[in-house]
Amino acid sequence: MKKKNRLQLDDNGKLKHFLTIEGLNRQMLIDILDTAESFTSVTEQNIKKVPLLRGKTIVNLFFEASTRTRTTFELAAKRLSADVLNINIQASATAKGETLLDMLRNFEAMHCDMFVVRHADSGAAHFIAQHAAPHISVINAGDGQHAHPTQAMLDMFTIRREKGEFHRLNVAIVGDIRHSRVARSQIHALSMLGVEDIRIIAPKTLIPTEPDTFGVHVYHDLREGLRDVDVVIMLRLQKERMSGGSLPSEHEYFQLYGLTEEKLALAKPDVIVMHPGPVNRGVEIDSAVADGPRSVILQQVSHGIAVRMAVMSMAMQSHLRDAPGGQR
Amino acid sequence: MKKKNRLQLDDNGKLKHFLTIEGLNRQMLIDILDTAESFTSVTEQNIKKVPLLRGKTIVNLFFEASTRTRTTFELAAKRLSADVLNINIQASATAKGETLLDMLRNFEAMHCDMFVVRHADSGAAHFIAQHAAPHISVINAGDGQHAHPTQAMLDMFTIRREKGEFHRLNVAIVGDIRHSRVARSQIHALSMLGVEDIRIIAPKTLIPTEPDTFGVHVYHDLREGLRDVDVVIMLRLQKERMSGGSLPSEHEYFQLYGLTEEKLALAKPDVIVMHPGPVNRGVEIDSAVADGPRSVILQQVSHGIAVRMAVMSMAMQSHLRDAPGGQR
Amino acid sequence: MKKKNRLQLDDNGKLKHFLTIEGLNRQMLIDILDTAESFTSVTEQNIKKVPLLRGKTIVNLFFEASTRTRTTFELAAKRLSADVLNINIQASATAKGETLLDMLRNFEAMHCDMFVVRHADSGAAHFIAQHAAPHISVINAGDGQHAHPTQAMLDMFTIRREKGEFHRLNVAIVGDIRHSRVARSQIHALSMLGVEDIRIIAPKTLIPTEPDTFGVHVYHDLREGLRDVDVVIMLRLQKERMSGGSLPSEHEYFQLYGLTEEKLALAKPDVIVMHPGPVNRGVEIDSAVADGPRSVILQQVSHGIAVRMAVMSMAMQSHLRDAPGGQR
Asked: How confident is residue B281, by pLDDT bands cut at 50, 70 and 90?
């Protein structure tokens, strides 16, 4: 924890890398939410651009393909007026046998300023941040089953916009908690922001082996778990898991853990329904709920741009402060 | 017709989507040509950029690969100072089983402003326009065998630049009319702009089943059809058709329907030769003609940028007018 | 030589295309180095952008995939405020049977200003420059085994920065000289800039068949060749060559021609070690040397951006001068 804290923050305690929710403190999360709030007006105005990162070069280092996530970071960067390089690593230099570190050194030498990293291995973004030059900021855009902190922060932003305060909320996360970097980051953020009743709802095979370390309440029955919640977060079911034997059929899963209007009626009347997308309609969630009046799924997408603009600009501020001729 | 009209125009009768020539009226086509005229100077000046769409996000949604068409839209957008996202759908989210509508909703939530759609299915751009949020404009960059309206308009622009007036012209379109979205859009545009003598020249297997509904004259003999024409538009022969049995060999096709200098001599002395590209040299057209003094094929390409800038900026104007805080 | 000279220079003797070091003169190389010097401050300042090529369109025409080289040109272009189109030719129009010349004509008609060409065939960039319209500049980003002149110039820039003067230096190039476009361009540049002692060090199978035409000294023994050199340039060993039988095993190659600290001790104490990247660690160079105090490999990468900005802006200046309404 200490070490991660040190890695993510600069000497003034400001955000330098954004790798995981762990190791940050409540105030930092609130700073991110407040900064994102100031950017929502940018994304809604006619000229959706601010010159904050003009002349900066942001590299999307995607070791794992994800058009959707890459697009949100690319849009956020362009709306901050940064130059963006999209690097798909499978198709790139590693084919020539270049090591990861040599590749990083090269982008640093080209005076790039920020790496947005997506990787199938847990810890990849940390590794890159540990080995990056001092003038580089690293943003974790999802690493293995470890963390997806910008997703968690856009979820927190959505909850705060809809519900105002965190500490009296009951929040349920439903689905494959065990393998989900999104859930892991959400639980840390919810806990840090003061949510007292965090529930995870899943079959036993999809619950983390040591869930109590998170201080969450475990439910195996969806109806029971949904009772009186203010927020329900559905996770995307990775269909690949199905064949692994750890799950019943899609149909059976939907019967037990799929969110329908009838089950949602057990939650508070003003419950909001969230999902990181893309939605598997009829698997983890019924279309009537996904498109229904309680769904804030598309608001999450909108807020994703503002939150990523916030994180990118905050991390770059740290970098400017540290630079030899900083604060120019 | 009525319905399509309503879909393409906003409440003030201005262009909102650009999906097909049908349903528009003569004045709208002339507005597009006049607007394009004003953009030709931009593409010819030293700094080929105007700030008209600064801060706007244009998404090239290409469900069918076409580097050439995508490039012209990308250049047009960049010269209007817009931000461009290139999304290749095969490689993208549909791999994760996301529905088309969910994908659209996501781009809308990211505050994108315009979709440029290329799709192998006829009607795809209409479908997307019908289901898009009110703040989105849709431009059809080619849908199946249905329409390719920006190609038709750049052709009209080229004809007007070369010939001045439309109504006394004899225009021949030669080749696979039946399967050509380009021909379909051209015939509508030529007819709407007052061309009285529109001829289609092709073997019987490549004539549309109900050609007379277009009010065009059908020829099966190239020499006969070319007599005294002012404009000849050659279509690209899709080589895939060859194997389908609806066509003779390339060599035989060239003998009968390939445009040579000798055949072109039957047309008016100041005839212009057009082709949407890429050209199959020695199949539908002889190199001596494609590169000869009557060819305006490369002018068409140049005008394509100005016409696309015109359509994009006009559609975006409608959007600005309709926006809650429009005309800011 | 004369002809190449004419092709690369405009009527005023200024750089128009940058295809190869041959045919240029010493002063032109020095102009490039001096211009690059002025751009190093741009790449090091906070807002790494100058408006020099705003509104210009630069097309990266890559017939051979190279993310690394493409990235450096893309960054250089963006930092000059140009618009960049990345065209991967395999995936593009040639699939539709379009000829190379038709493709060029199209980009020209779209008012593109510069082609950056990478091609597996020697002479491809020359061919394109010969056939390009007068308003187009062509930059060779590597053609077959022929030339890679921007790489050579960034190497010269690095040597000048580290050593000041050229004419008293001893420079050794080690590795597969025979097949290396990088070596070919380096030897021409070193010679033109006045380096008297140019050495090439390689097994006989990797020495060009007529090396003496270059006026270089040939060594087959690495230790002997390294004696008292100021600069050692290691080439990347193409592993594909191994299986061709012209080379021993990687292990054996490293024993004989791999650069280690022990062998490097034979050179001058202030020797600098260069490599065009990506490095094959443990094949042509030991990691201790590649990452050691004498290595300037990453400086080369940094300088690559400034040198490419220099070449691009100089070639575009020529173009502006020649334009009908030039110097606007």
From this structure: very high
Check CB contact under 8 Å for A83 and C71: no
Shortest distance between the Cα of A281 and any Cα of chain B, in A, equals 9
Structural domain including C71 reads: 2-147+302-322
Domain count, chain A: 2
Q: Domain containing B203 — which CATH number?
A: 3.40.50.1370
Q: Is residue B328 part of a domain?
A: no
Q: Which residue from C85, C102, C110 is facing B278, i.e. has the nearest CB? A: C102
Listed in sequence order, the residues at least 6 apart from B223 whose beta carbon sits closer than 8 Å to its beta carbon are B263, B266
Q: What is the pTM of this model?
A: 0.92
Distance from CA of C92 to the nearest CA of B (A): 6
Burial of B73 (0-12, 13-18, 19+ CB in 10 A): buried
Whether C109 sits inside 8 A of B43 (CB atoms) is: no
Give the burial string for C141-180 (b: 16+ CB within 10 Å, else e).
Answer: bbbbbbbbbbbbbbbbbbbbbeeeebeebbbbbbbbbbbb
Domain membership of residue B96 (yes or no) is: yes
d(CA B141, CA B148): 6
Shared-domain flag, residues B271 and B317: no
pLDDT digits (tens, 9 = 90+) for B107-128: 999 999 999 999 999 999 999 9
Mutate to test the interface with A, among C39, C71, C83, C154 (most CBs of A within 10 A): C71
Confidence label for C17 from pLDDT (cuts 50, 70 and 90): very high
**Interval A289-311 mean pLDDT:** 97
Answer whether A293's CB lies under 8 Å from A265's CB.
no
pLDDT of residue C326: 39
Q: Do A44 and B111 count as a contact with CB atoms less than 8 A apart?
A: yes
The pLDDT of residue C322: 52
Place of tokens 């100072």: B81
By C-alpha distance, the chain A residue nearest B52 is A47
